[in-house]
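Newbie here. two chains, one complex. Structure please?
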Amino acid sequence: MRTLGIVCLLAAAAAAPAQTPKNNSPTSPETHPDRKVTFRVRAPKATEVTLTADWQANGVQTMTKDDAGVWSVTVGPLEPGAAIYNFNIDGVAVPDPVNPRIKLRARTSASIVEVPGDGTELWNPGTVPHGRVELVYVPSKAALPGQTREVRVYTPPGYDKDAAHKYPVLYLFHGSNDTAAGWTDVGRANFILDNLIAQKKAVPMVVVMPFGHALPFGGPGDNTKVFEQFLLDDVMPTVEKTYRTAPGRENRAIVGLSMGGGQALTIGLSHLDLFSHVGAFSSAIPGDFSTRFKALLDDPVGTNAKLKVLFIACGKQDGAFARSQQLDKTLTAHKIDHTFYPTEGLHNFAVWRQYLGQVAPMLFRDAGK
Amino acid sequence: MRTLGIVCLLAAAAAAPAQTPKNNSPTSPETHPDRKVTFRVRAPKATEVTLTADWQANGVQTMTKDDAGVWSVTVGPLEPGAAIYNFNIDGVAVPDPVNPRIKLRARTSASIVEVPGDGTELWNPGTVPHGRVELVYVPSKAALPGQTREVRVYTPPGYDKDAAHKYPVLYLFHGSNDTAAGWTDVGRANFILDNLIAQKKAVPMVVVMPFGHALPFGGPGDNTKVFEQFLLDDVMPTVEKTYRTAPGRENRAIVGLSMGGGQALTIGLSHLDLFSHVGAFSSAIPGDFSTRFKALLDDPVGTNAKLKVLFIACGKQDGAFARSQQLDKTLTAHKIDHTFYPTEGLHNFAVWRQYLGQVAPMLFRDAGK
């Protein structure tokens, strides 16, 4: 019996018994007490149904059909956390038809299964004070003419109470084919920050999460360039006008995962006049890193004076690991201070939640001193 | 060429050309200039694929397969606005596999196609100042022990600027199998309010949108009763502590659609000590309305003095129309002041956006006078 504070945005799925509801579709996913999970889909006419999973390197599992036409597979035990999956029904990749927890994407969609832990995880809302996640509408001037984009902003607990306090800002970017909602809906960045702040392991900060696909996903053009312009010209001025943000580079961090890690490195290291903390999780790394940032690499004293934190993390089983490892070597060779944080793990929110919990306490430790 | 401010949370789908992207799946939906819409899904092995649509009374359309295994159908022209649809692939109801605009539900999910209008619609973000939508985490004491629920709260433009101003509050409820996100993600309640406020047709107000399935969707128990307790004991105190809300019944409205309309009527009319404005769109209406609210019906002078607005709206082609019509007759027979607003339309967000635009200007006109 769990007595922890559990966020039940969609209590139906979490609490549903393993029975066939009115619409004749089975319960899916069903998480068992041993953290094994059963996935089911009713597709009586299908000839082949598989499960695509983000929690294993070769993420395709065969499913088997019962007499009622319900395909199922039981996997795990899974690690506590959020896992993402799809079904492939006779060649059509679809989210779980009955699971309301949907992973929104820039194109397509998937399903989420949340495997409970023991309640002590940072991403668990627990009983600590909660900040808010705010949907802010940012009109673009030049980067995306005529467009208004939704940006998610986390304000920490107590933001309303002390009207004199100014907060440092973490700009936090999602990966390819994700959305501005990813870091909160799946990453639970807000609860991770709530817990770290309650434990006094991180300073209260505002976290800004824009939509990283400035240009249409999968289309032509230099997305990072347009995204940088939108960030610098539209998002940052709106944030600094709307929220009580502490001014100056020492109060700004820029961190991202995968594609967003590449954006954080590219934009952050190009603008040490604006940012003093840079982080990249499981990151895309510019192929021309050494030439693009030659001036920074060749001036370790100057760079280290400006760059308070440079955090590189990646799972050892992630296809992106070699590039992170190479970046670590390049930085080391040039005596650039940084933290390389390799862990067990793949390219998924299991490690990204962990990395946010690791880097957030490192941010803004000197600010205001 | 559209020059209006368009919210592109997910620009990929909106801007994608009608071509086959890398993953070999077709573009869907494709909205044509004449507001006809083509839906496509690649399912070469399927024997029957249909489109389920919320914009027509008999909402199932046959789709036809081409040589590449892509099923398609072109419908419309559709009215400007948001329409919701699913595919049924050999008996499996799924959202559109490639459309990132997902209608989140309490169970299952669907897809959204947004058909542009001429830009003058209230739900269009346009170039007016925008309020924010905030995700507030509300722990429950007695109604839902141990649970914390996400509640969406709209704060109007300028909320941060005048620290002395206190705002009236509209509690706005979604329908069955919807979520706390429905009224903003699909209903665009925030933009409707932004526009009405900019046009000085509505007073600036805070809008509170909780998750109406207090108990698991489809499960046993008296959901309205538990939801009422959660609303009164947990949501309202949190809102009044967190936001600068004007006190007293004259500054509170309670409005909902479908199941949420039933909740607004049941809770609102039972608590005229707390609410002075009640609205029900395309509403579920308690079967025992006349006996449950006998005291109110039998005291029109007293009831009319307390009830500043009682707004009942429904589409004439909606299966729920007869019940709204009957409620109108009952109220008229008992001389209870109210507005009955029948329109053309079905049970969908096309009418609900319209009804919010109609009722919001009626709210809080006397407050503070």
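Moderator note: DSSP finds ten helices and 19 strands in chain A. Chain A touches chain B through 72 residues (CB under 8 Å). Thread marked as resolved.
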